[in-house]
Queue: 2 jobs
Job 1
Amino acid sequence: MKDQYYPDLGKYTLQKFKENLRKRDMIPSRVILKDNLEENFCILDFNGIKTLKALIEVLKTKQKVKAFSKKVDLSIEYLTILKREASSYISNPINLKTFPGIDSRTIEALEKIGIKNTKQFFDKVNIGKEANLIYEKTGVSIDKLNELAALSDLARLYGVGPVFARIIYDVGIKSVESFIQYSAEEFIGIYENSTKKKADFSKNDINFSIDLAKELIITQKV
């Protein structure tokens, strides 16, 4: 069965990855990725790297980075940073106990049946549809399980940690599918009205998150 928690990077083309790098506002340590962008990605393409999954695989370890650097004449520094950027498209699962507003009794009850993070919860409830079974085993209310299902879904978004997921949930956006219905401008407006502070992320950041969120939806429906 396909892992639906993550986007299917086997279908995410290297061309699309390149265009994202071109458009995005990169942090200083990753600006190097914009240098010689066309030339470097032509080299990758010539060497059979067609998807983001293939790129991550060929750069999976330090040894692989070193070997690939020697093969294609791209620096180890460049390939290491490229690997970090590519790997950032895969959100790490979040411990459920780090979400604001989730009581310790709920966390302890779920941990007893082996559910500690968002991926484990997502696989069981959002995909496995086992909310009623978990309720019977733990006594955690269906309302609370639905809340965690929403937070676990939102945690799959690029750049979203436990606090940000809670903010998104509290403004009424309770799924990845709901998130992509908003434009970047609309989302920033909702965020600033809710938090009463200026967003510390840009329209480009949100557009990129929306783009990756659409890949999550496609993966989940395939």
Job 2
Amino acid sequence: MLYHMVVARKQVLVQLEDDLVRELDSIAADAGVNRSELLRRLVRNLVEAVDEAEADTELIAAYKAQPEDPEMLAVLNRLAAETAIDW
């Protein structure tokens, strides 16, 4: 098990207003983490959200470049209806 794994980190100076720091500290306390861990999680979530948005944009562009074939969709819908499980 890797309980004491060393993770390379870079210290980054960020200036925030006092009221924002108080709010962050309150949220961190409620989550049971320190301010740095909270900010790491927030940044990680932001990066993932941006990546997902970019992937969505690429997928939309791909569908616009080669739209779905209406006949193929009709076949797939019929097949899905014929093989659907009765709940």
